[in-house]
Amino acid sequence: MGLLYVVGLGPGKIEGMTLEAKQALDATSVICGYTVYVDLLRETYPDKEYLTTPMRREVERCHMALEAAASGATVAMVCSGDAGIYGMSGLIYELSADYPEVEIVVVPGITAAISGAAVLGAPLMNDFCVISLSDLMTPWDVIEQRLHGAGAGDFPVALYNPMSHKRVDHLAKACDILLQYRSPDAVCGWVKNIGRDQQASALLTLAELRDATVDMFTTVFIGNSQTRDLRGHMVTGRGYCPK
After folding, report:
1. Is the confidence at residue 153, as pLDDT, over 70?
2. Residue pLDDT, tens place only, 220-237
3. SS3 for 9?
4. What is the domain partition of the chain in residue ranges?
5. In the 3-class helix/strand/coil scheme, how is 46-85 assigned residue by residue?
6. By three-state DSSP, how is residue 210 classified?
7. Which residues pair with 113 in a beta bridge?
8. How far is Cα 90 from Cα 71, in angstroms, rounded to an integer?
9. Are 232 and 174 in contact (CB under 8 A)?
10. Can you tell me the distance from the alpha carbon of 125 to that of 43, in angstroms, rounded to the nearest whole number?
11. Quick one: pLDDT at residue 51?
C-alpha cells in the first residue's frame, strides 16, 4: 500500500512549517505540487523526486500524486498554508476512489489568515470569516452573498485572492458591499508574501482599501465594529476590556 501525505506548508519559510509537516516531508521520496510552492522546498530537500504542474492543473497534479503513491512510493502533495483550506486535500479524497490501495494522511498547516493576522497584530480575536474573491471555482453572485452575510454579522473578514490581472475590480466590489455595513474608517490591513523575504504589510481604512492595489500573494483583513488601531497594530477586541 502506498502512502500519500497532503501537507500544508504554512506561509512559506521552513520556520513556518509545523513539526508534523517537516516529519512528513522527511519521510517522503516524492514531493508533488504547484511549481511555486515546490520551489520553496528544493534547497532544503535537494534529493527528492519532484512532480509539478502550473496553476489550474490541479486535477492532473492530484492524479500524479495518487499514481506515484499507488506505485508504492511515499508521496507528499504540498499546499501553501493549510491543505484543507483552499488546498488539495478535498480533491485528493474526491479522486481517491480510483486508488483504493493508497493511504491518505492530511497534515495541517498554518493558513494565511492566521499567519497574516500575526503580522498585523490580533485582528481575528473573535468569530471571523474567510472568503476567497476568486470566482474561478465559485460564482461571483455566491461570493457576494457571503460578503453580505459577513457584513450583516459584523464579522472581521480575511480575504484570499483579492486581486489578479484578470480580476482587478473584485476587491473594490467587496469593499463596496462591506461599506454598506461598516464605517469607511473601519480599520483594515493587508499582508503580502507572508513569511517570505519580500513580506510587506500596511494598515489602512476601509475607504482607502477600496482603492488599493494588491495581488494574489496578498491576504486582506477587514475589521469589524470592535477593531481598532492600537499602537500601529490591528486589534479586534473580544470583550475583556469594554470601551
Report:
1. yes
2. 999 999 999 999 999 999
3. coil
4. 2-107, 112-236
5. CCCEEEEECCCCHHHHHHHHHHHHHCCCEEEEEECECCCC
6. helix
7. none
8. 21
9. no
10. 36
11. 97
Residue 236 amino acid letter: T
Mean pLDDT of 55-68: 95
* DSSP 8-state symbol, 98: G
**Which stretches of 108-186 are assigned E, i.e. beta strand?**
121-122, 129-132, 157-160
Task: Please answer whether residues 77 and 65 qualify as being in contact, where contact means their C-beta atoms are separated by less than 8 angstroms.
Answer: yes
Q: Report the CATH number of the 2-107 domain.
A: 3.40.1010.10
Model pLDDT, residue 243:
61
Looking at CATH, the fold of the domain delimited by 112-236 is given as 3.30.950
Report the C-alpha gap between 149 and 209 in whole angstroms: 20
Q: Please report, rounded to a whole number, the percentage of residues in the chain having pLDDT higher than 70.
A: 99
Question: Which residue in the block uniquely carries the three cell numbers 481598532?
Answer: 228
pTM of the model: 0.93
Residue 199 contacts residue 193 (beta carbons within 8 Å): yes
Give the cell for residue 93: 479524497
**Fold agreement between 2-107 and 112-236:** no
Partners of residue 7 on adjacent β-strands: 78, 107
Per residue in 90-134, pLDDT (tens digit) is 999 999 999 999 999 999 999 999 999 999 999 999 999 999 999
Decide: 143 and 131 in contact? Cβ < 8 Å.
yes
Burial (CB count within 10 angstroms: exposed 0-12, middle 13-18, buried 19+), residue 95: middle
